[in-house]
Amino acid sequence: MPARDYFNSASSLALGVLLGAVGVAASAYVTRASWLPMLVAPAAEAKKEDPHAGHDHGPPGERVKLSVQAQANLGLVVDALIPESYERMLTIPGTVEDRPGISDRNVIAPLAGVVTSVHVQPGDTLQSGETLFTMRILSEAIQTAQTELFKSTKDLQLTVNNLKLLREIPKGGIAESKIIEVENQEQKLKTAVTAARQDLLSRGFRLEQIDAVAGGKFLVEVTVVAPDLVGPVKPVAIAVPKIVQTSNGERLPTFELKELKVQVGEQVQAGQVLSVLANHRQLYIEGRGFKSESALLAKAAQSGWLVRAEFNEEGNEWAAYSGELKIRHLANTVDPVSRTFAFYIPLENQSKTYVRDGQTFLNWRFRPGQRVRLRVPVEKFADDVFVLPAGAVVREGGEAYVFRQNGDLFDRKPVKVLYEDRIDVVLANDGSVGPGEFIVRNQAAALNRALKAAASGGGGGHEGHDH
Fold first, then answer.
1. pTM to 2 decimals?
2. In the predicted model, what is the mean pLDDT of the chain?
């Protein structure tokens, strides 16, 4: 075949193939609605067979997914990590005790007599100056003192009048020595009156009663009243609270009658204790430490570190105690039986009142004999550690873990524990977890069990995923 004929034949064939391809493409475009779904369906099925396409897997077995309901059932508490300082605590048992010289006051009989009336009962509250007892005087010394005061007062009045008359006599009408003699007598009687009044005052007589005796009205009965809260000598470096008032201006009771020592008709002697009054606003917490802990406790006392106190209280009747608790002093003796020594922390009490039958009663928050658990700081960590509640960390052998929240996913992260006790766990800020990350602060053990359950039931290396 000639070359020209061969070339023409090949060109004709190529043109035919090109035209055929164009025709097939045009036909496919027109009929795309019928054949396109058949191609897309297999691709979708292939994608469906790999549900982990685009998933961030993370380490196998270190992530668990929880529904919103599961998180609510566990009561998860999540918060961001913030570097802070921490004080290592020494846990020591303690007891609330009365504060010697402040909490209790003895009421004594000012003189010998017979108790004729008791105006209060144990549990009653009262103000300073309120009547407690009425006594009939039996003391001969008291009767004599009253007689002396009355006699000296009358003699002094007569002497003053006599001296006034003598001074009105013209000069030369009477010897000067006579006037001097009467003036000396006046001074002696003034001294006798002052001594007699002071004698009765020291025996418990009030000023108005003494004035009545001086006027000739002898007392056959005396009343014993509640003393003032603040005595003549204030304890050094101890703040004694003044009378407290409620929001409506009502005065709160000063004392509570703790114990009644006498009965009606009982004869008592001067100085005998009639009752014991209590004011529990100022108390002590007495801690008991071992001798081996004395250096740590002494350091806490010298440094003025704040002590935490955990009181055995039920319910939410009282708000969280906000008072500062510091060790005031350490005892310098060791109990020979328990081999412990005491240290003391001042405690400002709190109270509520209620009225029953017209009588106001006090309900104290802290009571002598109440048990306390003291947490005394003995070591301070730097300002770059993470402090979490004990429930935020779970252990497996030598490993310790926390859980970091990421939406409904919870990643288990290994951490380094610097210190832990029954309440707190201190973590190193070493990059295992970082500031600002949201860490679950409770139920770490429950999350760890959920993670293990998901891992054991998942298979295929996709532990913790919700397929």
1. 0.58
2. 79
